[in-house]
Design goal:
Helix 3 crosses helix 5, helix 4 crosses helix 5 and helix 7 runs parallel beside helix 9. The protein has a single domain, classed as 3-Layer(aba) Sandwich (Carbamate kinase). It is globular. The chain is an alpha/beta fold. The chain has 10 helices and 14 strands. The longest helix has 24 residues.
Amino acid sequence: MSTMDTAHVLVEALPYIRRFAGKTVVVKYGGNALAGTSEHDAMALFAEDIVLMHTVGIKPVVVHGGGPQINEMLKRLNIESHFVNGLRVTDADTMSVVQMVLNGSVNPQIVSAINTHGNVAVGLSGEDGRTLQVVQRDPELGFVGEIEKVRPHVVESLLSDGLIPVLSTVGVDKNGQPFNINADTAAGALAEALGAEKIIYLTDIAGLRRDVDDANSLIQKITVQELESLVNDGTVAGGMIPKVESCIQAVRGGVKSAHILDGRIAHVLLLELFTDQGVGTMITGAP
């Protein structure tokens, strides 16, 4: 890239930096995106994007999952995994593994990657300060929680101190029992509670398609009403349902827009936030 090309990129980014300065942006970092590709260190590039956002005045909040990492650990321990409508059936042994992987491995890795660029990231769990209070979703699912209440005061306190919260999606019920929470759902609920400008889901797909088998059918922009129609007619199905439902809920709850992006693309956050074209799928409340 020539020096003039670099200048054009910076000029293109300027109005977006102004627009989003001081705004909260929740970024859900999915386990599939976190796994990265062979082409680059996905977590390192993600950390650079988050720090750049922070540096130009945006208030990023990272909410992470860790499905593939949990699957790997369960396999090593010879514990079978079962899913119902995209949700992991979580017995007591599985819940212990979920806590170990999310709180003890994935969360510290993300915090460390961000803090390579400055001591600005702080790791926490939905259990801390009872940030994510839940009730049991369905006895057949075991320790899978449905969010009853979000207490964003811990996250808000960190943001006011100029820090970047990194939240793992282990919640707790009123008796202190830990529960596994779908990370997409948790991110959407937190974004709503924080009054976030945007919620961005980083996953391992380019965005939503009208035809799942046709890469050319990528939906660049869609309203929540149109998206609900795609859910109802079966276009959106399986593991995408919790993600899409959380997008719809967040936007209906006051978040300006939701975005589904391929987290394996280098600097995908910067491409979406600071360029005219953008990438992935954007969900809004109105046309």
